[in-house]
Amino acid sequence: MMILQCMSVITRCLSAQGFNVYCKGSPEVLQQLCQPESITEDYTQQLSIFAKRGFRIIAVGFKALNPKLNYTKVQRLSRIIHLSSLTYSSLLNRKLSTPSPLSLMHHGLQSTLM
C-alpha cells in the first residue's frame, strides 16, 4: 500500500487556530498525494539528477487542515483524509556514505584479526 511509504505529523502553533499536516516520504508517493498544480515542472528531472548522483531522496508536502477542526476531531482523522491534496514543498537529498565496517572498528580502537 503506497500510503505506508510516508510519515506524517499534525502540528499546531500555540498562537494559531488551525492545525497543519507535514508529510515526508518517497518522491513517487508524495507525487501522488500532492495537488498536481503544486508540483514543479522540473520535478522528475531533478529527481533523476539526484538519483544518478547517488543521493537518497525524500519528498516533503504539507497542508493546513480545516480551521473548524478541534483537537479531538483531529485525533480521529483518518490518515487517508489528512494526507490527501497536500501541497508539494521540496525534495530533500542526502549523499549515501557508508564507511567500511573495518574502518569503523579501527576508528573505535577495536582489534581486527583475520
Nutshell version of this structure?
With 114 residues, the chain is α+β, with helices and mostly antiparallel strands. The protein has helices at 27-33, 43-52, 71-75, 79-82, 101-107, and strands spanning 6-11, 20-25, 55-64, 87-95.
Structural description of this entry:
By secondary structure, this protein is α+β, with helices and mostly antiparallel strands. It is 29% helix and 27% strand. It is built from five helices and four strands; from the N terminus they run E-E-H-H-E-H-H-E-H. Strand 1 and strand 2 (20-25) form a beta hairpin. The chain is globular.
Major pleated sheet = 4 strands, antiparallel
Q: State the end-to-end distance.
A: 45 Å
Strand order of the largest sheet: 1-2-3-4
What's the total number of strands?
4
Helix and strand content put the structural class at alpha+beta
Low-confidence stretches: none
The rounded Rg comes to 20 Å
Query: What's the helix count?
Result: 5
The overall pLDDT average reads: 82
Which H/E pattern describes the elements? Answer: EEHHEHHEH
Summarize this structure as a short list of keywords or feature phrases.
4 strands, globular, 114 residues, alpha+beta
Draw up the topology in text:
Elements: E1 6-11, E2 20-25, H1 27-33, H2 43-52, E3 55-64, H3 71-75, H4 79-82, E4 87-95, H5 101-107
Antiparallel strand pairs: 1-2, 2-3, 3-4
